[in-house]
Amino acid sequence: MPGGVHYSWGQITDARRAAPGAGAAPEAIGAVAFRCKGAEPTVKVTRVESIVLMGRYHFVRVHTDEGISGVGEVSPMNAGVTHAMVEKALAPIVVGKDPFDIETIWHQMFHRPYKLGPTGAQLEAMAGIDIALWDIVGKASGQPVYKLLGGAFRSDAEVYASSMLRTMTPQEEAERALSFKEQGYRAYKIHSATPWMYDTGHDQTLDTVREMRKLVGDDFGILVDVNNAYLPHTAIKMARRLEEYGVWHFEEPIPAYDYAGLAQLADAVDIPIAAGEQEYQRWQFRDLILQARVDILQVDVIKCGGITEFKKIAALASTFDKPITVHNTQPTVGTLAHLHLWVSTPSCIYPQEYNIEPHPLRDDTPIWKEPVLVEKGRMRVPDRPGLGVELDDTVVERLRG
User: Fold this and answer.
1) Containing domain of residue 104, as a range?
2) Are both 184 and 274 inside the same structural domain?
3) What is the pLDDT of residues 352-376, one digit of tens each?
4) What distances in angstroms separate CA 285 from CA 236, 253, 298, 322, 353, one per listed residue?
5) Keywords for this entry (predicted)?
6) Which residue has the higher pLDDT, 224 or 38?
7) Which is nearest to 322 in space by CA: 271, 270, 286?
8) Are residues 201 and 68 in the same domain?
9) Distance from C-alpha of 50 to C-alpha of 87, rounded to nearest angstrom
C-alpha cells in the first residue's frame, strides 16, 4: 500500500459519519481492505463472549477494542458442549486477531483443534463466532452483510411453514396447513414419522399428506421430513406413493450416513430427495453431491461453520447445479444470518425453511430490539449495517444461564 498508510477504526467511523448519507467513506473502506500483509492490526478482538440462554440457546458475541461487537448463533444441540468449545478451544485462537481476517480465523479455528472435530460441536461453535465476525465487518463498513456477500440477487426471500409437531392428527395437520396458506405461505412441511425408526415406529405420513392435499389444493407445496425413518427399499415405496400426491421435497428419508442408499433412492424416484442437516463442511457436501446424489442441499449456517463456509458450499452447489433449501429451525439470529445468505446466494431459489412453532426467544421474551419477522410468507432483509439487529441486553441478562 503506497506509503504504508494505516487507518484506525476510529478514523473509519469518523469518515463514515462525515460523509453524506449512511454509507461508509469509500477511501476508508478501501484502506481497511488493502492493509499491508503482516502489519499490526488496527483493531483487535478483545473478547469472545459465549452466551447460553434458558440453558439451551447458545449465542456468541465478539467484542473489539474499537467498541464494535457482533453477534452469532450456535446450533442448540447441546449448549454445554458448544459453550465449552467456544470458551476453551476457539476463543483463545480468536482473541487478538483482526476481525476483518475472517478466512484466516476460520482456517485456524478449523485446523488447530481438529482432533476435537471437525464435524458437529466444533463446526457449530465456529459458526457462532464466524457469524459474529461478519456482523462486525458489516457494522465497521456501514454495510449490511448481504452487501458484503455480493449484494442482493433477489429483493427478499420466500419461506415455507415448517411444522415441528408430531402429535397432531392428519386432519389437524391439514387444517393447520390451510391456515398458513391463508396467511400467505405457499408451502408447508410435516414431520410425520418417528425419527430413526428403521421402519418400525409410528408413521402417519401418507394419511397426513392425503388429508392435506384435499384441503390445500394442488397449487400448494407439501414437503415431507421423516428424519431418517426408513430403510432404502421402504423409502423407495413411500416416495412413489408421495409422488401421486404431488409432494415436493422428500427430506432425509433414510439414515443420513447411508450415501449409497440415498443414491439408490434418488436414482429410483422422481420426487426431489433433500438432505444436508447432518453435514457440517464442504467436503461432506461434496460427498453428498457425488456419492449420495441428492437433489436438494440443506445447509444450515449455524451448524456448518458459519457464513464463510456456507458460501463455499453454495459455490460447490452451483457448480453441480444443486439448489439449496436450508435447514433452519432457530427463528432469531440464525434465521437472520440465513436471510442475508438467501437474498445474496443464487442457489437459494426455492422457499426456505422457517420454524412456525412457538419459540421463547422470538415470541415470549424477544431477545432482539428490532425483530425481523415473516410477512405473507416472505422475509425482507434489513438494510442496517451488519446483520441488522442488536440483542436486548436486559432480556439477555434475565435469561442467561
Assistant:
1) 43-141
2) yes
3) 999 999 999 999 999 999 999 999 9
4) 23, 17, 9, 11, 19
5) Magnesium, Metal-binding
6) 224
7) 286
8) no
9) 7
